[in-house]
Amino acid sequence: xxxxxxxxxxxxxxxxxxxxxxxxxxxxxxxxxxxxxxxxxxxxxxxxxxxxxxxxxxxxxxxxxxxxxxxxxxxxxxxxxxxxxxxxxxxxxxxxxxxxxxxxxxxxxxxxxxxxxxxxxxxxxxxxxxxxxxxxxxxxxxxxxxxxxxxxxxxxxxxxxxxxxxxxxxxxxxxxxxxxxxxxxxxxxxxxxxxxxxxxxxxxxxxxxxxxxxxxxxxxxxxxxxxxxxxxxxxxxxxxxxxxxxxxxxxxxxxxxxxxxxxxxx
Length: 266
Description:
This protein has 266 residues and is an all-beta fold. It has two domains: 166 residues, Jelly Rolls, CATH 2.60.120; 80 residues, Sandwich (Immunoglobulin-like). The protein is 2% helix and 45% strand. Strands 11, 14, 15, 16, 19 and 21 form a six-stranded antiparallel sheet that branches. Strands 1, 9, 12, 17 and 18 form a five-stranded mixed sheet that branches. About 6% of the residues have low confidence.
């Protein structure tokens, strides 16, 4: 039996301000192997809160308190459809401006067994929010370093060949002219996100400070699932104007919620 799912997300975001002192800057641009700029590349220090996303010109800039770094810290560049690359933070500091080349990755398409059985549509998630928590996602001090933050929740999948056909998430407060998110869907290992199962990028743009349920049509992407998943939104772009982006967490909730501040953090 194939099951079609609509996923509903409500998020908890916990943020803390960065303490400054001994600030150093890493900047550069990211290109593909055809020398074309790559937008929306996730860039950050592994397992640290420092990170950002490349812009439409492939440009990135990260400001780092070097007192919070370890000698062996690494900077990772990653994007769906491309091979990830690692560089030592020291190496990046030594280069005043770095040009990073990402190589396109050949993805194998998983085998899907199609049957003629009747489809059953299930909505997985909740729109009931009895005791919500509201938390501000935007950080005004370094506005581009909130980019790459990621929030999501777990979903139980009870049938093989389940089709994910729609995603819905709620924005409580938003005064940006435009914000863009990347949808990520992970397999689960030890109750944590493991591998991103998507082979192409899925972007969602929200304009005019919209605050409501946002619906994303996932049917064109033919996403078939056999096991439990974690679905998240990664904040990849924002307008210059704006300083408030608030998501709620639904309470009570049987699902596990996840938050990552820093594009390459845990």
